[in-house]
Structure formats: C-alpha cells, structure tokens
Amino acid sequence: MTELALDTSLARAVDALFALRREDGSWQDTLPSAAVSTASAMVALHFADPDRSAGLISAGARWLRETQNPDGGWGDAAGAPSTLNVTPYAVGALQFLAPEASAENVRRGLERIERFGGMAAVGDRQQCKLFVMCEQFLAWAGLHDENKIMRLPMQVILMPRWLRQKVSFTVPFILSWGLMQANTRPAGRIRRAINRLCEPRILSYLDDLHEFEGPGGGYQESPFMVALVCIGLARADVRPDIVRRCVDYLRATVRPDGAWPVNRDLELSATTFVTHGMQDAGEGDRLAPTLDWIRRCQRDVAFPATGCPPGGWGWSLRCGWPDTDDTADALIALARAGHDRTDGQVRRGLDWLRAMQNRNGSWSCFTTDNPIDLDAACSVMSAHAVTALREAGGLTVTDEPIAKALRWFARTQRPDGAFTCPWYRGLTAGTGAVLDALGGLGLADSAVAHRCSEWLLANQNADGGWGPGSTAEDTAWALIGLLGAGAHGHPAVSRGVEWLTRNQRPDGLWEPDLLGVYFLDLMYSCDLLATGYAVQALARFGAGHE
C-alpha cells in the first residue's frame, strides 16, 4: 500500500461523504427495503386504512412478488438468503391481500416453508423467532388455526415499572398484540377481568411513548414496529387516534419501490460513525455544524419505557430510544472536538453512562442488569462506553467504572480470545472494539488484549479481509482493534488496508453487509456504518505511518 493510494482512497471517501451531508450537519443512512416490514405495513394499512391505501397495499404486494428468491422464500433484504423468520410473513400477506395475483408466489413460498420443516418449524421458537407473528399472518390467510397461536403476555403491563422496564425493546409489540388477542379471541371470566385491568395501562404506556417520541407516530422510528402496533390497535378497535398516526407514518415512509425498511434510518448512529472517521482523517474543522446537531440530539428528559435518566442519545433525532452505544459515540465525537466534562452536556452524558453501567461492570443497550436477549450485556457497547469515559470523562484504569469493565472483559472473553456481541453478527465487532478500548487505556500488552489480537490475526481471510466472505465492516473493525493495540507494522494490517482500498466503490463509499441485528434474528445493513468505520480504519493507519 503506497501513501498515495491511501491518501487517494481517503480523499475520495471524505469528498463523497461531505457531498451527502445534510444542511443541518447530519448524515442520513439507508437501510434496505425488507419483506418483513413491507408485509407488516401492508396488513396494517389493510386493517386501518383499506380504501385510501389500496394502491400502497398493491405496490407492496408487487414488491414482494418481484423480490421472491429463486428457492421460493424471502430473506431479510432483497436477494438475501431465505429465512424461516421472513418467508411465512410474505406468504401470509400475499395470500391474505393479493391471492389471485400471487397464487404462484404463494405456492412456491409454501413449498419453501415445507423444506424448512413445515408448520411445525414455524411454530418452534428456536427455529422461527418471529413465530407468533408468522403464525398470525398465516392464520389471516386461512393457512393456520388462529386459536393455536400463543397468547402474548400483556400482563407484563401489571408488573412493577422497574421490572417491566427490563423487557424494553419489544414491549410495544407485546402489549398491542396482547390487546388485539384480548379483543378478538374467546376468553374465560378470569382472563376477561385481567384484560380489562390491562387495557387502560397499555394505552397509557403507548401514550407515554408518543409523548417522548413526538407527533410523527414513528414508534422507535421503525416502520416494522409501527405496523405491528397499528395492527394490534386496529384489530382491537381501540384508540383510533393512535392508529391514525401510525397510518400517517406508514404512508409517509413508504419508498418509491413500494416497500418499507425495518428502520427508517439511524441518523444519529450514522452521523457519529462518519464523524469519528472525519476526525481521524483530520477534517475536524469542517464538522462544527455536525457537532451542533449531535448536541441537539441529546435527550433532556428521562425515558419512561426503560427508566433511563436524562442525558442520553438515541439512534435518531426524535424517536430513537436513548441507548449506550449512541450515547458513548456522541460523547467520543464531542471529546475529540475538545469538549470535556466541564461542558454541561458532556457531563450529563457521562452521568448517563455511569448510571447505566450494569452491576457486573458491563453495559447493555437500553436497560441495566438484564439477561434478556438484546438487553443483555454487550461487548461493543461496553468497549465504547469505556472509551467515552476515558476520552470525555478523563477516567483511567484506576477509576471504578473502568476497573469494573476490565474485570468483566477478563471474565467473559471466550477461550479462543474473541468476544460475542448481541447486536452484530459474528465475533469481529466485539473483539475489535474491546481491543481498541484496551489499547486506548494503555493495556495493549494485557492478556485479554493479546488474546483479542491473536484471534483477529488467526481469522483474517486469504484475501486480506475479515468476516464471512470479507466485508467492509468486519475488516474495518478488525483493523481498528489491531491499530489501537499498536500493530501498524503488522503484515496482516497492511493486507486489511489493501482490501479496503481495493473494495472501495466507484462512488467512494463501501458496500454494506447484512450484519446488524434488529431483534429476533432480523438482520439489516447500514451503508454509512460500513463507510464510517472504513474511513476510521484507513485514517488511523495513515496516521500511524506519518
């Protein structure tokens, strides 16, 4: 890798990214259109707005037919491998809403489901994480018995608030569909009494979310989640005002191709990924409007759904829930621009991170001390939180928050040296992030760091990249970790850098891969995540050779 080639690659990426920056200083990423969210939106509009939205429903059905895989199934994005999570969704929606035009697609889809293991596999929560939704969509299509579908535990709303907050991300779906089942399926006297007790509390919970997230109706800024809530309330025949907001959101977020993404965008996340890369590339002088925008995204009120305090950041400006990773990334961006704990907003963000640390020393995404799925401890988020506390808060290895995190890293590292992460596919993200955090603390020679490095070096692909088939994200994460540990001169690092420059697209960006986890095994890609991290890796490599 020549210095000229590296400089040229970075310059192309920087120019392309600044050309994409919005007037307010932020960047907006693009997530792929998805069959699961498109099918959900179609069904939601059918139940809540059938006449006005007939054209959108028809266009969504056409998109599903056009993106069916040759094997008869559907995946998390167009062209992605077929999954049991998604295929029943699409089959049910097409048979329910467009049976004549979709007869051949439904036949092929049902054959694919049979090859997955049939309805027994659809109903097996180990094989099909979206089993309740899949069975319900098939039931509406006349392909499954609705009375055999598991009832969702709407009684979670009766739990003490502190315990209910542990469930976090999936609660809007559980509550709205539990309400739907309560109002559309037979129930005995005791169940009816419990349902009557739950309903006003559920609606109050959804009102609290709406007050926090704003008037757009975009629960979690996710067309998928909005569609699920809309279906539940419309079928339950309650709160037409919330249903109307959901319909307006779905109509506003449909894409020109007739489909919807799982999430509309991750604008704060994307902006911080890119900002870190620009700062590493020496472009800090051009980021003043971006940093102002990041400041405006900080939430100044507590969030009732998870119980977190004020001071956090979420993945999007209005509807993103405050979470560890976006809070840490925002603080890192501000710290690298010269803002420390004497800055009021930085101090509130640091207080938020300290309040959200788990008792075992780690961090989760939305809640504390929670072993459930996506709310469990996360190596990437813990590493980023440690870096934020160090860079923005001035903490060192002797300060208890970081000392506790280091003990957690040592306890949870796999025997092979890698770290798992619930939010990204594979092991590269967690391993690279922890190694980078340790390097920043001056612990590149520690036993944990050595094992991270050994795992990364042992798992580089023959072409110089990392990850299944080599991806920009995995390659960048591995390089950032190795560079953070001081491995600038290692041949593996040079090969990884060459892979990134060789695989840069003509437009200056990098191709994203389906490696982000939304929830329940649904995967997504984020174009600016791939490019933001690639720029960070290349810029840090260049800085180490100046």
UniProtKB/TrEMBL annotation:
GO biological process: triterpenoid biosynthetic process
Gene3D superfamilies for the chain: 1.50.10.20
InterPro entries per the UniProt record, alphabetical: SQ_cyclase_C, SQ_cyclase_N, Squalene_cyclase, Terpenoid_cyclase/PrenylTrfase
An annotated Gene Ontology molecular function: intramolecular transferase activity
Residue ranges constituting the Squalene cyclase N-terminal domain according to the UniProt record: 11-164
Squalene cyclase C-terminal domain mapped to chain residues: 285-512
GO cellular component: lipid droplet
Pathway info: Secondary metabolite biosynthesis; hopanoid biosynthesis
SUPFAM superfamilies documented for this protein: Terpenoid cyclases/Protein prenyltransferases
Keyword set includes Repeat: yes
Alphabetized UniProt keyword annotations: Repeat
Family per similarity comment: Belongs to the terpene cyclase/mutase family.
Protein name from the UniProt record: Squalene-hopene/tetraprenyl-beta-curcumene cyclase
Protein species of origin: Amycolatopsis xylanica
